[in-house]
Design a protein that fits this description.
The complex is a heterodimer of chains A (122) and B (166).
Chain A (H helix, E strand, L loop, with lengths): L1 H5 L1 H9 L3 E8 L2 E8 L2 H14 L8 E7 L4 E4 L6 H7 L4 H7 L15 E4 L3
Parallel strand pairs in A: 2-3
Antiparallel strand pairs in A: 1-2, 4-5
Helix pairs in contact in A: 2-3, 4-5
Chain B lengths: L1 H25 L4 H15 L1 H6 E6 L2 E8 L2 H12 L6 E4 L2 E2 L8 H14 L5 E6 L2 E8 L1 H12 L5 E4 L2 E2 L1
Parallel strand pairs in B: 2-3, 2-4, 6-7, 6-8
Antiparallel strand pairs in B: 1-2, 5-6
The chains are: A alpha+beta (122), B alpha/beta (166).
């Protein structure tokens, strides 16, 4: 657990930011910190704690894998967008994107700049 | 006769008191003190470990619960607990976590590439061997964290950052 002590500030940041499914495990001289963050901001706070320790990120004894449990959000359609590209850029399926926006998008082939789309959880 | 009885009582008390005091002394530290001392002993090796392990003591019998990384650590903690004064027995209920497993190199590489693309990061070479990701190329400092997130989020065995930071 020597590495867990080295990276205590990262563990503390995870605890302070409501990381769930949290696991800290050392294996083969690498510390694995995993969990799910309630938001991108929470994930960022954990990463900032790591960056504070190792600004150039040259240390290879830590793998920090923090997912974000609520990835839903909104996206404003830009000129030239289409649903296929928006789905791909947000890592969701076209079907999921269409299903989440049936109220807004009557015809999936016609979306307009300025429309606000719901981006479902991946 | 009354005097004799009093004398007897005094004599009996005189014998009992040291015995009672000796028993009290031989009881040693109380349970709360034992718990504190066991925790301190573990923390001396690793503060993080002390947080991961729960120590409870009842009449000198210590119970250890929690999850640790290896059998070696599990037995080390038991030895730590046994070495503390006043501990009569140790129930080692610590669980050893199952080892972490990793996806095939090709899966990890695909995930890193997709994560980099989602962050619109280009010009970085991703090599994966035996689960270890090596990043080379040139990265702006403002994008360094995003590039490292892209690699770490793919759940690799290790991330080796050989990128030139500009």
């Amino acid at each position: 657990m020597a590495l867990a002590d080295k990276y205590q500030s990262v563990v503390d940041a995870a605890n302070a930011n409501g990381i769930t499914e949290f696991n800290v495990q050392e294996q083969g001289d690498v510390l694995y910190i995993t969990g799910m963050a309630p938001s991108e901001e929470a994930k960022q706070a954990v990463w900032d704690a790591r960056t504070a320790m190792d600004p150039d990120m040259r240390e290879s004894d830590l793998v920090l894998t923090i997912g974000v449990s609520d990835q839903s959000g909104f996206y404003e359609v830009q000129r030239g967008d289409n649903l296929t590209h928006i789905a791909r850029d947000h890592g969701v399926s076209l079907q999921a994107l269409e299903d989440a926006n049936r109220d807004v998008v009557k015809n999936p082939d016609r979306i307009f700049p300025g429309q606000k789309l719901v981006i479902p959880n991946a | 006769m009354k005097i004799d009885v009093r004398r007897k009582v005094v004599i009996v008390m005189g014998c009992l008191l040291p015995a009672v005091l000796a028993m009290a002394c031989s009881k040693g530290p109380d349970d709360a003190t034992i718990t504190t001392n066991v925790r301190a002993k573990i923390a001396a090796d690793s503060p993080a470990l002390a947080n991961a392990v729960t120590v409870t003591t009842l009449a000198g019998a210590v119970t250890l619960t929690g999850a640790v990384d290896s059998d070696a650590i599990k037995s080390k903690i038991e030895q730590d607990a046994k070495s503390v004064e006043g501990v009569k027995s140790v129930a080692n209920n610590l669980i050893v976590k199952p080892p972490i497993t990793f996806s095939p190199d090709s899966t990890i590489k695909t995930a890193v590439m997709a994560n980099l693309a989602a962050q619109k990061i280009t010009g970085i070479t991703v090599e994966v061997a035996n689960g270890e990701v090596t990043l080379t190329g040139t990265i702006e400092r403002a994008k360094l964290q995003d590039a490292m997130k892209a690699a770490n989020d793919a759940k690799p065995k290790k991330v080796i950052n050989q990128m030139t930071i500009k």
